[in-house]
Design a protein that fits this description.
about 375 residues; mainly alpha; Serine Threonine Protein Phosphatase 5, Tetratricopeptide repeat; about 0% strand; elongated
Amino acid sequence: MPDLSEEEREQRWDDAARALEEARACNAAGRMEDAARLADAARAELLAVLGEDHPDFAQAVCTVGIVCAARGELAEGRTHLERALALFSKWREEPVVRAMERDARLHLADVVTKLGAFAEAEQLLRALIDDIANDPTAAPTDAWEALNHLGVCLRFAGRFDEAQAAYERSAALFGDSQQGAHPMILHNLAGLASARGDYEGALRFASAAVAERRAEGRREFGLATDLCGLGDALAGLERFADADAAYREAIEVFLASERPQHPEVAFALHNHADVLAALGRVDDAERTYQESIARKRRALGDAQFEVGATLNNLAAMLFEHGRVPEARALAREAVHIVQATLERGHPVREGCEALARAIGAAP
């Protein structure tokens, strides 16, 4: 610890705490460069003034991790969040620290879900929900967000009925705690409906989410994700021109944000490529698939199942247009990835394996 008077130490501590609050506000507002700068500065200052053995320093590490994850730097975000949790564990008996720790666990579970480690994310979220239920200092409604994240995890794992139950519990708790719908809940219900083939239901949820976002008067990251949900529903209804317009606007908003490298951009490009293929715009679709694959590899790693999903769809399109050797090579790579990362019976794995068999590319 530097040689500071108590007054100097308190002043620097207060300044760093304010910077940390501002970093979180910037993160929520999508001002990612400001959020990263403030969070890093606060972390360095709190380390200098307090050392590692203090919950405020742990909270700074947590905030750095949250900002990294929000920018799409998932591996780095995970490292910081895991470090924060290790630091928080020393003061778990303090109610204020328990609340900080729950926040870190929620964000870690979100990162782990995005990285495709569904079993690990589910374990984190169920433990968090149990802890909230057994913590006398927590309100029951505090579990709504963890249940919402659990629904996301279960949906991506292909467990749709369980995801629906988690979303319904989350929506009920949210309704008990606040007025009105929440776009995030609407977005996730739209995604689940699309995954189950209920595209009319998905369209209702996604349209409501987009309307809520537009009412906020900002073209920002949340609007882009909801436009993607709208595009998914429209594509499922074979309204491909409308879906094309929704994805184009979403990608425009994503790329104008301070998170252009976030994996959500890659997911949007994948779905847009599917629509371009359906519209017969093969060259545009191929370029868009390739951009999605490159972005997924950078953000998620070469072996993440989402990479396999896009390789599979590109393979299907190329095979349909007579480019058989290329299609078979891509399909084999897709199967190799999904068999290493997804359980048997997962819809993405089944789809990749089915295509590989159909085009003579099964390993």
